[in-house]
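Figure S7 source data.
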Amino acid sequence: MRLGLVSIILIALLTVVGIYVYQNYAAGLYYLAGRYDRMMNPYGIDPEAPTPTAGDTSFHRSMFIADLHADTLKWERDLLHRSFYGHVDVPRLAEGNVALQVFTIVTKSPLNFPWSSCVSARSPDKNTPLLFMQGRPMFDLRTRAFYQIERFKDAVERSREPDSPIELRLISSVDDLQQLVADRMQGMQVIGGILGIEGGHWVGGPEASEADVRADMEELFDAGVRQFAPTHRFDNNLSGSNEGCTRYGLTEHGRIALQHAEELGMVVDLAHISQQGLRDAIALLEQPFNISHTGIRHNCDPPCTPDRNLSDDDIRLIVNNGGIIGVGYWPQAIGPSVWRIADVMQHIMDIAAAEDLPHPSHHVALGSDYDGSVTPLIEVGHLDVLTAITRRRDQPFHPEVTRDIFGRNVCRLFATVLPGGDPDFANELCAQLQHAPAAPVPD
Ligand SMILES: [Zn+2]
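Tokens for the predicted zinc ion complex:
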């Protein structure tokens, strides 16, 4: 009894001291969160990167460009304002002529201990102290996700005000996508944003019923989420992860979640999933899907890390089942040279061609992982460097291949799967992108 009272007094005292410290040092903590962001999201430089010619840049500006993965919402930056650190914001996306960006939500990042060969959900979570420093909600993973969704929607709202030079628009249906394509073709300064989740950690589990799993998926859908990756870097209730400690396949709740995602009109993202999970999911899915950000194991020389990347067998399975692979720009995915990004793309297309697929270039996309605590070798504002690489490599890409990879495939994917979509309409809508006029350069 006395011990209970002492505990209560101690907790009350600690709470008061905690609130005092937080209130007086919140500005300092916020500053530290910014320093951490700056440290975790630098750009890498490859001195061998080409300088784009006027021809490269003009071709680049004639494309409808889409990227499948950026973790920008995790960081405390205003999407509408140019930041001098981190990777992505609306002004820099406009500079790179990006028309459509998937903003993926990360809620938990357990520490990866150097002595451990796997990432455990029980390891201390690096996101918790970051969220504390940012002053964001931190106790519940679902709340963490919805906070990021609200921040995105707030930026969308503010971008509609008359003094905002570029509009940021939430894309949640095929009608929205069609309008975005039409507005961009007219030269309007508008960028589409699709909300994605990287790890549905709170969905499913021993306490949850099948109806609960469906309800959680519907809640995400209603909030505007249109790309769903069941796993991130550790095994969860839906599936094992390719860096997890057990790496099991899709669970029963995972199957229900992915099937319901497709029924609702969300694109399934199989990045980070275990080998068995990849196979289970592909056998289950009826719609095209993506691997939003990855590298490949073929010619994966250090600092490239094979574990996180796709084997040739994985690639074969994905392309034969209507999947699209988003190629990343960071050295652990592609290796030390920026030219490797195009080599990775070519390797995927070579596998698709060897499988006799009619359109090998239909299976590759951009999957930058900007702001994902990586060091990409291409800056979003200078994406024309990547266009230059596709034109200047030993075997240059045909311009139509580049247009497919840089945006048309992502357009087709979302125009097929989002509510109101179908494959014929997707082909019709995205074929127009061949003739997209150059977007004006913003002031
Ligand atoms: Zn990721």
